[in-house]
TrEMBL record:
GO MF, one annotated term: DNA-directed RNA polymerase activity
InterPro entries in UniProt: NTF2-like_dom_sf (IPR032710), RNA_pol_sigma-70-like (IPR039425), RNA_pol_sigma-70_dom (IPR014284), RNA_pol_sigma-G_actinobac (IPR014305), RNA_pol_sigma70_ECF_CS (IPR000838), RNA_pol_sigma70_r2 (IPR007627), RNA_pol_sigma70_r4_t2 (IPR013249), RNA_pol_sigma_r2 (IPR013325)
A matching Pfam family: Sigma70_r2
Keywords: DNA-binding, Nucleotidyltransferase, Sigma factor, Transcription, Transcription regulation, Transferase
Top-rank taxon, per record: Bacteria
Protein name stated in the entry: RNA polymerase sigma factor
UniProt-listed PROSITE patterns: SIGMA70_ECF (PS01063)
Residues of the signal peptide: none
Amino acid sequence: MTDVGPADADEAVFMAAVRSGDTARFALLTERHRRELQVHCYRMLANYEDAQDLTQETFLRAWNKRESFRGHAALRTWLYRIATNACLDFLDKRNGRTPTPVDLSARSEVPHLQPYPDQMLPEDPQESVVARETIELAFIVAVQHLPPRQRAVLILRDVLGWPASKAADALELTVASVTSALQRARVTMREQLRGRRLDWRSPGTGELSRDERAVLRSYMDAHERNDLDGLISLLRDDLRFAMLPDPGTVIVTAKDAVDGWVSGGLFRPGHDDWRCVATTVNRMPAAVLYLRTPDDPRYRLLNIAVLHIVDGKIAELTGFDVTDKPWLGLPPTL
């Protein structure tokens, strides 16, 4: 993920575009970095729509600051620097409007969290290899427990693999400050991600396992057949469940989770005609749930259930209410 070394042909062409004011060439050279910059903004913000907006803001700032590019660093590095600082500015404003809770425990949720569609992840295989552990919901939530600049340091150093000096330059900090911030950030991440792999830069795979595909199919089949016992059998008895944008993650037994869904009106007559579509978000298996009511001829988008599967059981289920939201390219009706 690093890009050290002298300016290559892209940088030379980019500098020529800057000198000539060639907006078309400028856009062509920056646009090829859109997907990876958008993932970077998402890791910083945990919100897909905000990440889209901040990526666009990055390109706008890049154009306005184009004369500052001297070719001493790679174009990619320069854009990451701009994106990181755009996200920090955004977080300063957002945190000013919405105070951060004093006690951010491991069970705290992120109310603005949104899933990230896999089809928008970088197409470069090297980018995809690094993506899974650092794009899964648990990682994204854990990172939000860090103060913004610690968050930026962790992502630049431990996810992107930047050296301390490069991260310090991007954030206008000293190397000692970056090193200290990284140490504190790693302690928090270990607390938040207990039992999970923390070596984020080692090779991994973005593909779902056979277990994950099988459990996802069984989960969707149980929904469509209103098989409550089947659903219970798929859930771990210490299930971590969240339904966003409602606040809070709860740990419940499998039976209590299903009983709660029923008491909320689901799986009862009139709310028991399901169709499900398999997808992946955040490199995780997900079921898109559609519900048809007696007075409606069509199945309508209800929510996205994102599953974290451990040893053939659903250990974490994060639901996103997408009622009446044609979102992530999903059809609003079936």
